[in-house]
TrEMBL record:
<dbReference type="GO" id="GO:0005507">
    <property type="term" value="F:copper ion binding"/>
</dbReference>
<protein>
    <recommendedName>
        <fullName>Copper amine oxidase N2-terminal domain-containing protein</fullName>
    </recommendedName>
</protein>
<dbReference type="Pfam" id="PF02727">
    <property type="entry name" value="Cu_amine_oxidN2"/>
</dbReference>
<dbReference type="InterPro" id="IPR016182">
    <property type="entry name" value="Cu_amine_oxidase_N-reg"/>
</dbReference>
<feature type="domain" description="Copper amine oxidase N2-terminal">
    <location>
        <begin position="95"/>
        <end position="155"/>
    </location>
</feature>
<dbReference type="GO" id="GO:0008131">
    <property type="term" value="F:primary methylamine oxidase activity"/>
</dbReference>
<dbReference type="InterPro" id="IPR015800">
    <property type="entry name" value="Cu_amine_oxidase_N2"/>
</dbReference>
<keyword id="KW-0812">Transmembrane</keyword>
<dbReference type="GO" id="GO:0009308">
    <property type="term" value="P:amine metabolic process"/>
</dbReference>
<feature type="transmembrane region" description="Helical">
    <location>
        <begin position="9"/>
        <end position="29"/>
    </location>
</feature>
<keyword id="KW-0472">Membrane</keyword>
<dbReference type="GO" id="GO:0048038">
    <property type="term" value="F:quinone binding"/>
</dbReference>
<keyword id="KW-1133">Transmembrane helix</keyword>
Amino acid sequence: MKMFASRTFGLIISVYLAVVISSYSYYAWNISWSRVKAHHGQSSPYSVCKSRQPSVSAPHQNIWGGLADKEAADIIDLLHQHSTGLNLTTEDRDGSWDNRILHLELLAPNKSDVLPFINKNTTKPPPRYARATLMFGATPNSFLQDYVIGPLPITNNTQVRPLQFLYNNAGKGKVAVDFADRSEVLQFAKDVGLSVADITKLLWDGVQRCRQINQIKSGTRI
Ligand SMILES: *[C@@H]1O[C@H](CO)[C@@H](O)[C@H](O)[C@H]1NC(C)=O
Ligand SMILES: *[C@@H]1O[C@H](CO)[C@@H](O)[C@H](O)[C@H]1NC(C)=O
Ligand SMILES: *[C@@H]1O[C@H](CO)[C@@H](O)[C@H](O)[C@H]1NC(C)=O
Ligand SMILES: *[C@@H]1O[C@H](CO)[C@@H](O)[C@H](O)[C@H]1NC(C)=O
């Protein structure tokens, strides 16, 4: 009897909780549904997605924008001029025993130049500079070195100098390259491989045949 009473009590509590929870959920659901309806209604302050991109106006000119094609082309021309003394070979003719441009990008402006512009203390944007990574292969001791080129656009005042202030290493942006003719070594290995292709094929076929024979032997009941 005691057990029956406690079971009945348990049942009543469960039903009560179920009613409370479901009525609360209905209330919450009803509220969110009316919000959804309000969103889609004519009087809603939220409009549906527009088919065209909205136009925005930036408060500042983008001073971090990458080099434009014209800027990059002009810099490449300048670097290849004899007067720079870099002795660069153009990309279509260069090999591992030449000096060449590996990488060219905008050098991020100094914070001290950016802040006055962003804070509207000056209307003059920071001067633009480029950084180039050059590979010096026309020497027995090959090395990479970063250069700074600027100010841009190129005028008679534009300078090409080793980029050093960014670096703390002993070489100040100059790094030795021990294995500069990797592509020649790969080509050599390929040439040697091709010259013994017939022998290699015979050997591989031989090994393959031995394997097949072994598999048959180990897997076959005699
Ligand atoms: C310039 O580079 C070429 C290889 O591209 C090399 O043969 C020549 O000796 C270099 N000239 C100087 C002055 O280093
Ligand atoms: C940026 O700051 C470095 C370190 O102070 C300085 O050497 C360099 O000339 C500055 N660059 C420009 C464009 O002012
Ligand atoms: C703005 O520039 C002036 C003159 O160069 C300077 O005295 C002042 O401290 C600068 N103000 C700010 C907020 O950088
Ligand atoms: C740049 O230098 C060249 C040759 O030295 C000269 O003919 C030209 O007038 C100079 N340009 C400017 C803008 O100073």
